[in-house]
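Sequence and fold:
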Amino acid sequence: MNAPVDVSFFARAAKPLTSYRKYWASRFGASKFLPMSRAEMDQLGWDSCDIIIVTGDAYVDHPSFGMAVIGRVLEAQGFRVGIIAQPDWQSADPFKALGKPNLFFGVTAGNMDSMINRYTADRKIRSDDAYTPGDVGGKRPDRAAIVYSQRCREAFKDVPIVLGGIEGSLRRIAHYDYWSDKVRHSILVDAKCDLLLYGNAERAIVEIAHRLAAKEPVRDITDVRGTAFFRRSTPEGWFQVDSTSVDTPGRVEDHINPYQTTQEQAAAQGSTCAKEEGSGMPEANPAIQPMTFVANPALKQKLKPPPRDRTVIRLPSYEQVKSDPVLYAHANRVLHLETNPGNARALVQAHGERDVWLTPPPIPLTTAEMDHVFDLPYARAPHPGYADENGRHDGATKIPAWEMIRFSINIMRGCFGGCTFCSITEHEGRIIQSRSEDSVIREIEDIRDKVEGFTGTISDLGGPTANMYRLGCRAPEIEAACRKPSCVYPGICQNLTTDHGPLVKIYRRGRALKGIKKILIGSGLRYDLAIQSPEYVKELVQHHVGGYLKIAPEHTEQGPLTKMMKPGIGNYDKFKALFDKFSAEAGKKQYLIPYFIAAHPGTSDEDMMNLALWLKKNGFRADQVQTFYPSPMATATAMYHTSKNPLRKVTRDSEGVDIVRGERRRRLHKAFLRYHDANNWPVLREALKAMGRADLIGSGKHQLIPAYQPITDGSYQSARRKNSTPTAGKAASTAMRVKPAPGRILTQHTGLPPRPGVTAKGPRKAR
């Protein structure tokens, strides 16, 4: 059995989180809760805060909330950290509540992008906010990261501002903004912050805090990975490469596809990357000549490539990508090529006379560092300031996001799925960062022993996906060199380990603990991986499903699936067969809850019709569905904006993508998912007739919708003869067909994210 690569391979040049000399304020020790008022600071004996974190979420001291993770990590380094949560942004006064920070303001919009948090996929304002006490909407502004940064600058203009969180991550370069329907600057420009941290930021924030504490000017901190900042020019000693030489837009000859895996490139040249059992070298075949670099005559005297650590790729400028969709798609493709921390280069993009400079992605945390982060002394509860007079978090004080993850445990980070509509890879990276088994077990025991209201059921052991724990590349050298956007599309890479044994072991050890009645799996399951390990599926189905299990096929048709980078529906069928088999063996009636997306780029009306027919054939009737939501910087969002496919070389005449635009067509695609809802029948009848599929209108077994429409008194009228009323018998038989099927109601699929964020640095995406 091949062991998954330890991310310590990437961390050899990274300073461990626990190796820094603690700041002098460590003498104050850890606080039960990070202070939110001067009175709490006085109780702790503080005269000031070293760092103040401003967040758009209510403060919950739990490792699923970014402000708590960053705050506790900095506290463990010896810094005094205060929290300003959901401040009134109408003036700078609330940002002065804790006084002037000695080192910097840390700003985040919260666990969700503030625009996705506040608006539906149809750009309508939400009335609720799961990260606010009482589920009340309107407690954060639009583009909260920008507004908070500006108010911090007003409050104390000479204090450095370090912006982080998922809103900053996904807006680090010029990006298409769905809500204004235009390309916006990098958030650095509008927020006017000093540094932007993207991705999981523990490693970067610790180094920056210590360097600022050592009196280093923030403008001089330009070498920390996972950061973005302004520069006027490329410094001496750096080699600048135009992005068009990395992936040329326009009519060009074919060249090696940088999305190929190493073994695919080798196979094209008659070689191999397969490793002998127990060896660390590729298998030798004397009959095959090794790969050689063939010089291009046009590049004479320029054959030696510059060192990666001193190379920066210049993307098309903000002004160019704003006005040219092809260059926008090209820039998006190049950015995604440069996301592997093992080989990524720095990026630069001009915004007027200044450059936005992005250092390579952060080095993933090792297992020991993950344990350190999750073993910190979290109170695992909302700040006491949100409680009622009896100390309870109920009714108007309840925070739904905390209630959802109160008894759940995050065991890993990252995702190598590469789904184009999801931004997890852009934020958390594709390298899986896993905690140790002992650390996870300790957290289960902490919940059992310390969390009020625990009844014996752990609601989730997961992360961005349920079953990528300890999965990774078989060879660290291959992983560090790979530039493929997904390890599981179009098929599972031969270099990817798919052994679910460590996960099965955690499940079994966890449910054997005294006082633990059940461990459920609430994270989205990657079923194409699960079917590689029937033992895992059996363990999951027979012991960790509470009647329903959510999975995300997203669609049934190849057109949209290829644009999503999702597997075919055949993998779902294989998983369902195992699910049904093991459920029957356990004597349980259990159901799969598949999620689907309407109106995704590349989806035709016929695709949605075929999906609706599949749903009806399989007895599924969706309760709530979601249309595609173009989140910033996602590949599918680039498709939506440009009508180009960045998964392939982008040229002026390259593949176009069918984009579902306009309220009418988006409503139609959503209606196909809810084919059983009588309110959708008129628009579906009209569409089916226009598509030449009127044969699907009627009461037959293989027809999609009836030819009759319900009226207010509960009877039905003919869609063809609206002034005539059918017989009572026909009305009754039709009514029987539109009653919901018990046990087959689908839950909501919200794109990004499907539920409040449960990872330490951002929202979770069901896979």
About this structure: The mean pLDDT is 86.
